[in-house]
Design brief:
Radius of gyration of chain A: 18 Å
Order of helices and strands of chain A: EEEHEEHEHHHEHEHEEHH
Oligomer: heterodimer
Structural class of chain A: alpha/beta
Mean pLDDT of chain B: 84
Distance between the termini of chain A: 33 Å
Shape of chain B: extended
Largest sheet of chain B: none
Distance between the termini of chain B: 55 Å
Largest interface: A-B, 31 and 22 residues
Number of strands of chain A: 10
Number of helices of chain B: 17
């Protein structure tokens, strides 16, 4: 069954000064699909997903998220950001707020949710990622894996339609990677639309519907997960896979 | 018993070294104390220069003898590790101790032993020390300025009320707690203004009007400092945000404002506020001198506060902005809930610095004829009946300012601890 894409990117180009980071990106993501984006560092993967919630501005082409085009209109951007969750490499929790307050801040002030409801929701999400017992602590008191799971819960408290992951496990110690990936797998199984920038190919094989390989600002290869790993077509993809696997 | 080697004390004969060393140190200190407190020189039979240096030499030998590594005696090891690591540090230690001992007697004799406080005229001060009578007689003026004596209860009541109201934050009730920020930032200053306007200034409600020119002394120091602190903070905060704005007009206005006020001396700003400013105003428009001064100092200090806060804003990692934006927060929500709380926490020491400087800058308002505590002091010291007591006055003012500033400093340290959320 084909449904309308929830994210539609057409001929998108982006420059940092004179340097072109993204070249003619075309991508559409359907609802409930899980896309993994991989590629060497500096290939524009992070910039691509940061463009989707306009943490970066694109200069040419169109990006349509859930029927709304990303333009200068700040009201639109804020509305889109409220339904597109994002998890960062460096967690980016708010260090001056407790774990619970980190989760309830945006629902209360952006979605105008009553405080009691927001706290209930937050506790539910924290339970999903298994750090409900840390709710009263501050981010500085938690391990990296716990912080990243809290960041995931914080994003989910906005009840987003799409989740973006920007190398969520790259800043973690090896033994903590699994607990974060497990939480992400659970989320994927619950049917969330996800775009994940990661080097964790095991995760890609397990949950991704499609894998995108990027190099030098271009989408070099885009294929269903099985095909992507079994018979990559492009030479650069082959080289990359041979190095990373 | 091992042979004693006085060049290299060791643990073998620790008792001998320790007691002889301590004995020499004791003699050195004893000599200095005797000569500075009682003017008795027990080594007067020696040539002058030797007698003068003897305590130092004895002290150095004493410290050398007790410098025993790993002696096993806790206090001795502590001493050796911190102030007696080598001969140079031993000399420094001795010199500092001697300087302290030498300076106690003159300070004591000036401020207490030879000082006078009785009587109420200059003639009562017969001793060679301080004349606290002068402070005592003028205390009323130092606190209230030229405010009429019979109306001073109005100042007293206002300040007592304000101090009492400041403690509302200590009520441990959840209901009140929610509104504390609003209370301290908006309501409290308004109450303070109303009290000062109606009670201290008067002119209505059947109270006699007292012009601001008559206000003065410590109460004026408090009034000026209080309002300047309250006004300069929000203005500085907006300037700091403005300087980082993406809108060029706002950015240039902020930069221009900050650089202008930072570039001119406060004393000229105050002078301008009283002399030049009224020329640009319509004829019938009147703004009180004190109000103009408070505005001038507030804007001046706001420029400094802005740069301090900007430092805090720049110290925050970009990820904090990204995270706030990705949750759908707009500019103001992001700054109010995420950015400013962290940035302001970072710059508490810098803000405290600026605020202390502000309080100590208030004496400059003398250039427009407002006499706070130092201004009153200068007035009092030129009074023909009380010539020659500048020293007492300045010591008094220094102590008052030190108490105010130290209290503020401690308060800022408490704030830092209170908002510390890292491990």
């Amino acid at each position: 069954m084909m449904s309308d894409p929830i994210i539609k990117i057409e001929n998108m180009n982006k420059w940092f000064g004179d340097f072109q980071v993204l070249k003619d990106i075309n991508l559409s993501v359907e609802k409930n699909k899980k896309i993994v984006v991989c590629g060497p560092s500096g290939s524009g993967k992070s910039t691509l997903i940061r463009c989707i919630n306009r943490l970066e501005e694109h200069q040419k082409g169109t990006i349509i998220v859930d029927g709304t085009e990303l333009t200068e209109n700040t009201k639109n951007i804020e509305a889109i950001r409220a339904e597109v969750g994002m998890v960062f490499q460096q967690f980016n929790l708010f260090p001056h707020l407790s774990i619970l307050d980190n989760c309830t801040l945006a629902p209360i002030w952006v979605k105008k949710m009553p405080k009691k409801d927001a706290e209930e929701l937050a506790m539910k999400q924290l339970e999903q990622v298994q750090i409900v017992d840390q709710a009263k602590k501050y981010p500085g008191q938690l391990s990296g894996g716990q912080q990243q799971r809290c960041a995931l819960a914080r994003a989910l408290c906005m009840e987003p339609k799409i989740m973006l992951f920007d190398e969520p496990t790259s800043a973690l110690d090896p033994e903590m990677i699994k607990e974060v990936l497990d939480a992400m797998v659970n989320l994927a199984k619950a049917g969330m639309t996800m775009i994940v920038v990661t080097h964790e190919m095991g995760f890609a094989k397990e949950v991704a519907d499609e894998v995108i390989f990027m190099d030098e600002g271009m989408i070099v290869e885009k294929a269903e997960t099985k095909d992507f790993f079994a018979n990559p077509k492009n030479d650069r993809t082959k080289l990359f896979l041979s190095q990373i696997l | 018993m091992n042979k004693l080697n006085f060049l290299k004390p060791d643990r073998e004969n620790i008792t001998t070294y320790l007691y002889s060393g301590l004995f020499l140190l004791f003699i050195a200190l004893f000599d200095v104390i005797l000569s500075s407190f009682f003017k008795i020189d027990i080594t007067s039979f020696l040539p002058n220069s030797i007698s003068f240096l003897l305590p130092l030499v004895l002290g150095i030998i004493g410290f050398h003898l007790i410098r025993i590594e790993f002696s096993g005696i806790k206090n001795l090891d502590l001493l050796n590790k911190n102030i007696n690591t080598n001969t140079f540090n031993a000399v420094l230690t001795l010199l500092i101790i001697f300087a302290l001992i030498k300076s106690i007697p003159p300070v004591l004799s000036w401020s207490i032993i030879d000082a006078n406080i009785a009587g109420d005229t200059k003639e009562a001060c017969t001793g060679s020390g301080a004349c606290w009578t002068y402070i005592k007689i003028w205390l009323n003026r130092f606190i209230y300025g030229m405010y009429p004596n019979e109306l001073q209860w109005r100042i007293n009541i206002s300040f007592i009320l304000l101090i009492a109201l400041a403690f509302i934050g200590l009520i441990p009730s959840e209901k009140i707690r929610k509104f504390l920020t609003l209370y301290y930032v908006v309501i409290y200053p308004i109450i303070a203004f109303i009290l000062i306007y109606y009670l201290i200034s008067g002119g209505s409600l059947g109270l006699e009007w007292v012009e601001t020119g008559a206000w003065g002394g410590l109460s004026l120091t408090f009034i000026v400092s209080f309002f300047c602190l309250i006004f300069c903070f929000p203005v500085g905060m907006f300037l700091a945000l403005g300087r980082r704005s993406v809108l060029p007009i706002i950015r240039y206005i902020s930069v221009g404002f900050i650089e202008f006020w930072r570039g001119v001396p406060l004393i000229t700003v105050l002078f301008m506020s009283s002399v030049m400013f009224p020329m640009f105003l319509p004829e019938d428009f009147f703004m009180d001198k004190l109000v103009r001064v408070i505005i001038a100092i507030s804007l001046f200090e706001a420029a400094y506060v802005a740069e301090v806060i900007r430092g805090g804003l720049q110290a925050l990692p970009r990820g904090q902005y990204d995270a706030a934006k990705s949750l759908g927060m707009g500019y103001w929500k992001m700054h109010i809930f995420v950015i400013l709380p962290q940035a302001l926490k970072l710059v508490i020491p810098g803000i405290a610095n600026t605020f202390l400087a502000l309080v100590k800058d208030t004496p400059l308002i003398f250039v427009v004829g407002l006499l706070e505590i130092v201004g009153m002091l200068n007035l009092a010291k030129t009074n023909p009946k009380w010539l020659g007591f500048a020293m007492e006055g300045y010591v008094f003012a220094a102590i008052i300012f030190w108490i105010i500033c130290y209290a503020m400093s401690r308060y800022s340290q408490n704030l830092e601890l209170k908002y510390k959320t890292e491990r």
